[in-house]
Amino acid sequence: MKKKLEGQIAIVTGASSGIGAGCAKELAKNGATVVLNYPFEGAKEAAEQVVAEIIEEGGIASSSQCDVSKEADVIAMFADTVAKYGTVDILINNAGLQKDAKFTEMTLDQWNTVIGINLTGQFLCAREAIKEFLRRGVVEGVSKSAGKIICMSSVHEVIPWAGHANYAASKGGVMLMMKTIAQEFAPKKIRVNSICPGAIATPINHDAWDTPSHLEKLLTLIPEKRIGLPEDIGKAAVWLCSDDSDYVNGTSLFVDGGMTLYPGFEGNG
Ligand code: BGC
C-alpha cells in the first residue's frame, strides 16, 4: 500500500532535536524524503544522528545546515534541495528558540534573536517554499495540493506569557502570517496551517520538567496530566501534510493536552 506521503520531499527546519526531530521521523515513516535542517556546525552531529535513525528504519533523509534568519542561507537551502531531489512538497517551519527575560531587562539582542529565528525565519522559508509550489503546481498521484506548510506555533500564540514577551510576540506573529499566507494561496491549492504545541518534553523547556517538583507544577497546567512527546506533534504534522486534511487551510491545531482550556477552572473556578 502506498504510504501517505510517498514521493514527497519535506524540509523540516530545526530538526536536530526536539519537535523538529520528532516531525522528521514521523514524516519519513510515512514515506516522505526528509531534509533535516540544523542551525550551525555544532548541531551537525545531532542532525546526522536523526538522519541515521531514519535511514536505519528504511527512510530517506539528509541534513542541511542553514540559519533560517539569514535570507541567503534559506535561498541556498531550498535551491540545494530542489537540485538534489527535484522539488519541495512540504515545509515544516519549525526552527525556534527562547531567550527569556523580565520585560524591563530584556535586551534588544534577545528580542531580535527570537523574532529573527521564530518569525522572520518562518517568513523566509515559507516564501521560498511557496515560490517552488507555484512553479511546480499540483502533480497528480502525488498530492491534491501544490504544497503544504506547517508553521510551528505554540499555545503562546493565544496564552500571554510573562517573562517571554519576545517569544509570545513571535508566535502571535506566526498566527496571522500563517492565516494571511493561507488566504493568499488557497486558490493555488497551497495549504498553510499551524500546530500549536503545549508543553512537549524537549530541550527548550528542560527546566520545566527535569525534576519531579518542576514536573508536578507543570502538570497543574495540563488537564490531561501528562507532558507531550515530540511524536504527538509529529503525528499531527503527518495528518496536516497528507490529503486526509485536504479541506483544512489556515487553521491553528492545538496539540496541548488541554493546556488552552483554562485549567485554573478545573475545580469550581
Ligand atoms: C514553549 C515551552 C513551554 C510550552 C508551554 C512552548 O511554546 O517553547 O517552553 O513549555 O510552550 O508553556
Folded structure, characterized:
The protein has 269 residues and is α/β, with parallel strands linked by helices. The protein has a single domain, classed as Rossmann fold (3-Layer(aba) Sandwich). The protein is 42% helix and 14% strand. It has helices spanning 18-29, 44-56, 71-85, 108-136, 165-185, 206-209, 212-219, 230-241; strands spanning 9-12, 33-38, 60-65, 90-93, 147-152, 190-197, 252-255. Strands 3-2-1-4-5-6-7 form a 7-stranded parallel sheet, sandwiched between helices. Helix 4 (108-136) links the parallel strand 4 and strand 5. The mean pLDDT is 98. Residues 98, 154-156, 198-199, 204-205, 208 line the site of beta-D-glucopyranose.
What secondary-structure arrangement, pairings included, does this model have?
Layout: E1 9-12, H1 18-29, E2 33-38, H2 44-56, E3 60-65, H3 71-85, E4 90-93, H4 108-136, E5 147-152, H5 165-185, E6 190-197, H6 206-209, H7 212-219, H8 230-241, E7 252-255
Parallel strand pairs: 1-2, 1-4, 2-3, 4-5, 5-6, 6-7
Helix pairs in contact: 1-2, 1-8, 3-4, 4-5
